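Q: Predict the bound structure with uracil.
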Amino acid sequence: MRMYDLITKKKLGEELSPREIAFMVEGYTKGDIPDYQMSAMCMAICFRGMTHRETADLTQYMAQSGAQVDLSPLGELTVDKHSTGGVGDKTTLVAEPMAAACGLTVAKMSGRGLGFTGGTIDKLESIPGFRTDLSQQEFFDVVKEAGIAVVGQSADLAPADKKMYALRDVTATVDSIPLIASSIMSKKLAAGAKVIELDVKCGSGAFMQDREQAELLAKTMVEIGSRNGRNTSAWITNMDQPLGLAIGNALEVNEAIETLQGGGPEDLKELCVCLCAGALSTAKNMPLDVAREKTLQVLADGSALQKFRRMVAAQGGDLEWVDHPEKRQQAAVCLEAKAPASGWIAHMDTAAVGIASMLTGAGRETKESTIDPLAGILLCKKTGAYAEAGETIAKVYAADETKAQAGVEKLLAAITWSDNQPEHIPLILGHITAEN
Ligand code: URA
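A: Predicted complex:
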């Protein structure tokens, strides 16, 4: 078999066989197929696409290119969640303890933030003492004891994806649905959970700006999961404004704890309820409304909060920090961002809000940057809210005045004001299951 012939086949829009896809993925991972041939193939896929069968095969071989976690000793109800990323997205910290409290087993590997905000691991590490670098044995022990563990993603998960993603990044071949879907799902398949719940975001702060594209991505990922024996479903959600009010690592953990305690912002609560109910419904083949009731119950009776506390304790985190907000350290500087004139917030350029948060120190400007866990933004107003001229619309936290001021300026520039009240933006835009 020759890579040249496979590139020609895809260039002509023909379907690659499972053997051909296996040859390509294995050859590229080992270094037998050079970057220039793989980049030609990725470009051909960008233009010609892939069938669902091809995409599912590509994903399977990418997942098999490295370590695959066997979660079977933890039972049949292992669940994982993936969000395509957004600003203020702390749903793992809330929806996963809810899932554990509903009887699902959460053995989750998460990443650090690559873009302007921290990832789940960065957020959890703002809890003093919290360890995310557990050995496989420790990871399993915590799951058995607490029903939930969240650890850093192991480096040898789907190496084919790591190599292909780096190549796509420099060859303008990132924006292809089969390539994005296979990249995301290869890591999910390798991470081993039986149930996969996806949150595909669209809007100004999302990877997918456009709703139709988000829907296509969600359908493709659900199809990949089903074809690979994983119960997969997806929510399409709006990321035209940050989720919740907090953006920044410790600030987001505070907000997640408030939500688990029964407070927190409505949008965050609603999305977490949807994600948990979706996973529960898929895992236990339960009607969605029944799963939703169960989810609301574990939130109201405090059992989701207890799962979070047990995870924190089992992973070495400080429960005093969790239970006593007054003991949590604050950033050295807090500046207020004020409305420049009276009016309604008509739009937030959410990616720019993410950059504002990064400028405070809450995200990574380069891969080598270190994160300031205390930095970030606490919004007081979001899209659709009215503010008087000079009213505080956000508090911006940083280690020094310069960083806080940079955050304030970027945040204010990201907001569009109107004299008229804007239309309400719905958060939940769709739900994709293997059946619909
Ligand atoms: N996230 C991924 O993991 N892969 C992609 O291709 C795009 C976003």
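A: The mean pLDDT is 95.
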